[in-house]
Design brief:
Length: about 180
């Protein structure tokens, strides 16, 4: 039985105002993953789930990808639309991730509304799980999904990064609860 050899992807690092980002690209220059350096094990797990055994080798991400991300962090929020990306995932995950791309910059939605938008109003938990399995932070804006009560909910890169990203995009957030951090 011939096993498929592992795919090789390029791994680059980009300094951002909220920490170093890891960028994973394929041979055609499509962005496959964007994760925070302190969450590298999560990145590797998501890649393994989507692509099987994958080899990451140090390689600079395409200049247009780097420029678009740098532009985003410098305040040109629409630059994310210029990034060529692709995801594997299940058909359901890809449907959720495609829907995430339709949430406009500077706005948020909640899991129930996203499930309803997909004509699956009872699939709130499944939508939440797919959202949490998104391998391309920021570009596929899972950070724009918040709790139904307006609170920040889980984010693979940590709630402080989620807060920063939303404020960077102009979203007015509810103040933190009196008990300190918001519930995840």
């Amino acid at each position: 039985m011939n096993a498929k050899p592992p795919e090789t992807f390029g791994l680059d690092r980009l300094q951002t105002p909220i920490g170093p980002a890891l960028l994973v690209s394929d041979a055609e220059g499509a962005l496959l993953a964007l994760e925070w350096e302190d969450y590298e094990p999560r990145l590797r797990q998501l890649l393994r789930l989507q692509y099987g055994a994958a080899v990451l080798k140090e390689a600079r991400a395409p200049n247009d990808t780097r420029a678009a991300l740098t532009g985003y962090f410098d305040g040109d929020l629409d630059r994310l639309d210029m990034i060529k990306w692709r995801v594997a995932g299940t058909p359901f995950q890809r449907k959720v991730w495609t829907a995430l791309r339709t949430i406009p910059v500077g706005t948020t939605t909640n899991y129930g509304a996203l499930a309803a938008r997909l004509d699956m109003p009872k699939a709130v938990r499944a939508v939440g799980h797919a959202n949490g399995s998104n391998p391309i932070n920021i570009v596929v804006p899972c950070h724009r999904v918040i709790g139904a009560n307006g609170s920040l909910t889980g984010y693979g890169g940590g709630l402080e990064r989620k807060r920063w990203l939303l404020q960077h995009e102009g979203v007015a957030l509810k103040p933190a609860s009196r008990r300190g951090r918001m519930a995840a």
